[in-house]
Design brief:
By secondary structure, this protein is of the alpha/beta class. The chain has 2 domains: 328 residues, Alkaline Phosphatase, subunit A, CATH 3.40.720; 92 residues, no CATH class. Helix content is 39%, strand content 14%. The chain has 16 helices and 16 strands. It is globular and about 80 Å long. Bound molecules: zinc ion (ZN). The site of zinc ion has 7 residues, from helix 10.
Length: 466
């Protein structure tokens, strides 16, 4: 009896000693401050008629959490390149810089470090695979806009899986004599899979060791810049959840250990547009993509670490703008993103004949529920009508945001709906708000508490080594 207890204890001891970190999932919600997550949860609670806080994202159920400060080497408010570099290397750098410190010296990323130790590496996003955050894990350039050079470095990275919209400028921006980046990647041994179906087929082919998964029909020319927003999605559009659920078995079948960076890149895009309803869809979309990683963790709880954080906050999002109430349920009246709404208004004003006020009202009615399920006061209508009259005379200017210029009538409609929901924004740019960290799995406790973003990579290293 004593002997069998001894054996049992020694087996448990051996198991606990031999367990090691083999799988690291690193989720980055671009622009996702704590309020972005809070808004997503409170909105769902509101529209599902649940008590506030009842409907939780997967990430906020994780047992450990903390916050990160995000300032860059040079700016109180970081951009995604400096923040991405810091989250990938631990080094603070200048805004705009990728994979280099402020003196333009190359810094090694955690992904490169693990690749050198034979880990499988996957980098995926809802935006272009050469955009700042994903590029921060494999590229080293002094300027994040050097998309062609970043694409070349992607092909040279030897990482195992890339997933996202595509490349920004596969032919180079100004020089169409350059080798197409998809061809270049193929020359370096990558297989390109366009769309979910093709990616599934390719990922099961064991002859294929390096895969790039992009949306169907991507030829560059802006189609490669981002996936469709969740709020605008049509059947057949590629999703982040599909990319992650393709990447996990692909990496697992080919590598004993793997590291995956998954970016919810369009949370940032929605917040640059001060567009709450679209932001909510993007947060839930990243959370849904996390489910496949969470299922993998449940199957390998002693060897898996899931980490969720953000590079910075975008929009200066505030929940509450007057009394002690929120009316988030009003946001469900929004049927498309600010981007699509902007296009609808721009189309309406194309050509010689200007639309009637009634036609403009119809666009507001159909896409934001104004005058139907959303009450519009006489004063508010007057303001919208004044903008309409100015637009008829060509006197309105689009609102410039980071990724799209938004038609003034669309921007004003979204702003009015947000105001009625008691959601406020201080900027169309980034803010210095701290960002959340959520962690579960092996050595997840290391990530609780308040840290600077430069401390995260050393902590990941520690979580792997211990
Ligand atoms: Zn941004």
């Amino acid at each position: 009896m004593k002997r069998s207890i001894f054996y049992l204890l020694s087996i448990i001891f051996c198991l606990s000693v031999s367990a090691e970190t083999k799988y690291v999932f690193y989720f980055i919600g671009d622009g996702m401050g704590a309020n972005q997550v809070m808004l997503a949860e409170m909105y769902r609670s509101a529209i599902e008629g649940q008590p506030l806080g009842r409907v939780q994202t997967l990430m906020t159920t994780f047992p450990y959490s903390g916050h990160l400060s995000t300032y860059s080497k040079t700016n109180g408010i970081t951009d995604s390149a400096a923040a991405g570099t810091c989250l990938a290397t631990g080094a603070k750098t200048k805004n705009g810089m990728l994979g280099m410190d402020e003196d333009s010296v190359r810094v090694t990323t955690i992904a490169e470090e693990l690749k050198a130790q034979n880990w499988g590496i996957g980098i995926m996003t809802t935006v272009a695979i050469d955009h700042a955050t994903p590029a921060a894990f494999y590229a080293h350039v002094p300027n994040r806009n050097k998309y062609y050079r970043i694409g070349e470095q992607l092909a040279e990275s030897n990482f195992d899986f890339f997933g996202g919209a595509g490349f920004h400028h596969p032919q180079g921006k100004h020089d169409d004599k350059k080798v197409n980046l998809y061809r270049l990647a193929e020359d370096k041994g990558y297989t390109i899979a366009r769309g979910y179906e093709e990616a599934i087929t390719r990922s099961r082919d064991h002859e294929i060791t390096k895969l790039i998964m992009v949306q169907e029909g991507d030829t560059g020319m802006n189609h490669g810049s981002n996936l469709t927003y969740a709020i605008d999605r049509k059947p057949g559009d590629l999703t982040l959840a599909q990319i992650v659920s393709t990447a996990i078995p692909f990496l697992d079948a080919r590598h004993e250990k793997f590291f995956m960076m998954v970016e919810g890149g369009m949370i940032d895009y929605a917040c640059h547009g001060d567009d709450a309803a679209t932001e909510i869809g993007e947060v839930w979309d990243m959370d849904e993509a996390m489910q496949a990683a969470y299922d993998f963790y449940l199957a390998h709880p002693d060897e898996t670490l899931i980490l969720v954080t953000a590079d910075h906050e975008t929009g200066g999002l505030a929940l509450g703008n007057s009394d002690y109430t929120l009316h988030l349920d009003l946001l469900q009246n929004q049927k498309c993103s600010a981007w699509i709404l902007s296009d609808k208004f721009s189309q309406l004003f194309q050509g010689k004949n200007k639309p009637t006020w009634e036609a403009v009202k119809q666009v507001y009615r159909q896409n934001l529920g104004f005058w139907e399920t959303v009450e519009v006061t006489a004063d508010e209508e007057k303001e919208l009508q004044a903008l309409y009259k100015a637009a008829c005379k060509g006197r309105t200017k689009d609102t410039k945001t980071m990724y799209k210029s938004i038609n003034k009538l669309g921007d004003a409609g979204i702003a009015l709906l947000n105001k009625k929901a008691h959601v406020g924004w201080t900027t169309h740019a980034h803010s210095a708000h701290p960002v959340p960290v959520f962690a579960i799995g092996r050595n997840a406790h290391l990530f609780s508490g308040w840290h600077d973003n430069s401390e995260l990579v050393p902590l990941i290293r520690k979580a792997i080594q211990e």
